[in-house]
Automatic annotation (TrEMBL):
Limits of the PAS domain: 20-66, 140-209
Top-rank lineage group of the source organism: Bacteria
Entry EC number(s): 2.7.13.3
UniProt name for this protein: histidine kinase
Enzyme superclass (EC): transferase
Histidine kinase domain ranges (all copies): 279-488
Length: 493
C-alpha cells in the first residue's frame, strides 16, 4: 500500500519523514505484525498488508475507517476517552497492559490481540499502532497449562526472582496449599527453614548456567508442608523462555514418602534376612551335624551285627544330608536377589563346556551345543548357576533314560539369549509361572528341592535379565529361555 495514496485519500498533510515514502511503505509492510497510522480523530491513515490479513479486510477498506469499527461493542464506549488520554501524554507503551484485548474481524469474529502504541512526531498528532494476533500463543499457553495440570506429579513455574508463576493441583495437594495461596509467592516458602537462607544463591547459580537436571543430586531433599511437616522429595529443573522472553524454570516435584518407607522396609527385611542366614548357618546346621556324628558313632559301636538297624541309621543320615542341602538352597535363594559386582569378559563356549562336563548325563541321553555368541561381559557365577540349573532340570525331569537336550546361545541386540530344549514330558501352560515359585517342581519326582528354578529367575532378574518357559509344539518337551544382558550395566549391579 502506497503512503501517497493514503495521504490523497485522507486529505491530511503528509507525514514529515526523512526518507522516501515508497521505501517507508515497503518497510512497514515488512513488519511481522499488523501496523496502522491513526490520527486524533481515530481515522486510519495507513494500514500494512499484515493488518489487512489479520482482520480479513481488503487493503482499501481500512483506509479512512474509524478505528472504533475494529473494536468489539464492549470496548467502544470508553475508547474515545482513552484516545484523548493518550494524545494528552503521548509515549511509547503497550495498550491496555494487564487486560485482555480483542479486535473484531470483518466477519464479526473476535480475536485476542496485543497492541503497541508509538507516537509519531510531525506536523500533526499521529500514532503508529502495532497489532499482534495472539490466538496461537493463547492456544499454546492453554495446552501448556492443561499439560501441567495433567502431570501426575507436582509442577510449578518459577521466574528468575524465585516467584511462583504457575502450579498444578498435584503440587497443591502435596503441600496442602490452594493455588491462590501459592501464586506470586516466593518459592522459598516451600522449603524448610534451614534451606531458605542459601537457596537464593543456588537459584542465581542455576540461572547463570541453566540446564535440564535433577536438583541436589546425591543429597536427600525435603520440602515443607503447610502444616509444618517435612517430607522427602525428588526435584527436576528445566529452564525455558516464556512468550515474553523471560527466563523461567519448570520445576517438577515428586513426593517420595512412600518410596522412602518402602526402602526402609526393604532395609529392615534385608537385615532380617541376614539374621536368618546367620541362624540357618549356625543354629540349624549345628544340630544336624551333631545328629549325623552321633549316627556314625552308633554305627561304629554296632558294627555289622545288626544290618537292619544300620540300614535305618543310613536312611536317617541321608535325610540329614538332604536337610543340609535344603538349607544350602534356601541360603542360595536368599542371596540370589542381589547382583554380583565381579564382572568379567566371559567366553560363552568355555562357560557352557564347564557346565556340561560336570553333568551326570545318562548313557542314553544326548546333549547338543549350539553356541553362536562368543563373549559377554557379566559375572561368571550367577550365569553359570542358571545354565547348570536348567540343564540339570532337563535331565532330572526327563521321563526316559534316552532323549535329546539342546543348549543354544545367540545374540539378540544387547541381550544374550540362551535356550535349553528337551524332549521330555513337557510342562502344562497353567504351570508356567508356578514352577518358578519356591518348592515347586516340574514333575511328581520328589528328589528335587523345588528351589533351582526360583534361584535361576531371581539371579536373572538381579542382573537385568529374565527367564521363561514354553512348550515344544507339536513335539514333546519344553524350552527354557534366558535373556541376559551382554554388557553389565550399573543399574543392574
Amino acid at each position: 500500500m502506497d503512503l501517497k495514496k493514503v495521504n490523497k485519500k485522507s486529505n491530511s498533510p503528509s507525514l514529515t519523514v526523512n526518507m522516501d515514502e515508497a521505501f517507508l511503505t515497503q518497510l512497514v509492510n515488512c513488519l511481522p505484525m499488523g501496523a496502522m497510522v491513526v490520527n486524533t480523530d481515530a481515522q486510519i491513515l495507513f494500514a500494512n498488508n499484515q493488518l489487512s490479513e489479520i482482520l480479513g479486510y481488503e487493503d482499501s477498506e481500512l483506509i479512512g475507517m474509524n478505528i472504533d469499527n475494529l473494536l468489539p461493542a464492549q470496548f467502544k464506549a470508553n475508547h474515545t476517552h482513552l484516545m484523548s488520554q493518550f494524545f494528552a501524554n503521548p509515549r511509547k507503551r503497550l495498550m491496555g497492559e494487564g487486560r485482555e484485548l480483542f479486535a473484531s474481524q470483518k466477519s464479526g469474529k473476535q480475536i485476542p490481540i496485543e497492541i503497541g502504541l508509538n507516537p509519531i512526531q510531525g506536523q500533526q498528532e499521529l500514532v503508529l499502532a502495532t497489532l499482534v494476533d495472539i490466538s496461537q500463543r493463547l492456544r499454546a499457553n492453554n495446552m501448556f497449562q492443561r499439560s501441567i495440570q495433567a502431570a501426575p506429579h507436582g509442577v510449578l513455574i518459577v521466574d528468575q526472582a524465585g516467584i511462583i508463576q504457575a502450579v498444578n493441583q498435584s503440587l497443591c495437594k502435596s503441600f496442602g496449599y490452594s493455588e491462590i495461596e501459592l501464586l506470586d509467592k516466593k518459592m522459598e516458602m516451600l522449603l524448610p527453614q534451614r534451606y531458605q537462607g542459601h537457596h537464593s544463591a543456588l537459584r542465581h547459580s542455576f540461572h547463570r548456567e541453566p540446564s535440564v537436571r535433577s536438583m541436589g543430586v546425591g543429597r536427600d531433599l525435603t520440602a515443607l508442608h503447610k502444616d509444618g511437616k517435612e517430607f522427602p522429595v525428588e526435584v527436576g529443573l528445566s529452564p525455558f523462555i516464556n512468550t515474553n522472553d523471560e527466563d523461567m524454570v519448570f520445576v517438577s516435584l515428586l513426593d517420595i514418602t512412600e518410596r522412602k518407607q518402602m526402602e526402609t522396609e526393604l532395609r529392615e527385611n534385608n537385615t532380617s534376612l541376614k539374621e536368618f542366614t546367620y541362624v540357618a548357618s549356625h543354629d540349624l546346621r549345628s544340630p544336624l551335624r551333631g545328629i549325623s556324628n552321633l549316627i556314625e558313632w552308633i554305627k561304629e559301636d554296632l558294627g555289622t551285627t545288626t544290618p537292619e538297624v544300620e540300614y535305618n541309621l543310613t536312611r536317617i543320615d541321608d535325610r540329614i544330608h538332604k536337610m543340609e542341602t535344603l538349607i544350602d538352597n534356601l541360603l542360595a535363594y536368599a542371596r540370589a536377589g542381589k547382583a554380583t559386582l565381579d564382572t568379567q569378559v566371559i567366553d560363552m563356549h568355555k562357560l557352557i563346556s564347564n557346565v556340561t562336563e560336570l553333568l551326570d548325563l545318562p548313557a542314553g541321553m544326548k546333549l547338543h551345543k549350539d553356541v553362536q555368541l562368543d563373549t559377554i561381559v557379566t559375572a561368571w557365577t550367577p550365569l553359570e548357576t542358571v545354565v547348570r540349573n536348567l540343564l540339570s532340570n532337563a535331565i532330572k525331569h526327563h521321563d526316559s533314560k534316552e532323549g535329546t537336550i539342546e543348549i543354544r546361545c545367540v545374540a539378540e541386540n544387547t541381550l544374550c539369549h540362551i535356550t535349553v530344549t528337551d524332549d521330555g514330558p513337557g510342562i502344562p501352560p497353567e504351570a508356567y509361572e508356578r514352577i518358578f515359585s519356591l518348592f515347586q517342581t516340574t514333575s511328581d519326582d520328589k528328589s528335587g528341592s523345588g528351589i533351582g528354578l526360583s534361584i535361576s529367575r531371581r539371579l536373572a532378574q538381579a542382573h537385568g535379565g529374565r527367564i521363561s518357559v514354553s512348550s515344544n509344539e507339536p513335539q514333546k518337551g519344553s524350552t527354557f529361555h534366558v535373556w541376559w544382558p551382554r554388557f553389565a550395566r550399573k543399574e543392574n549391579l
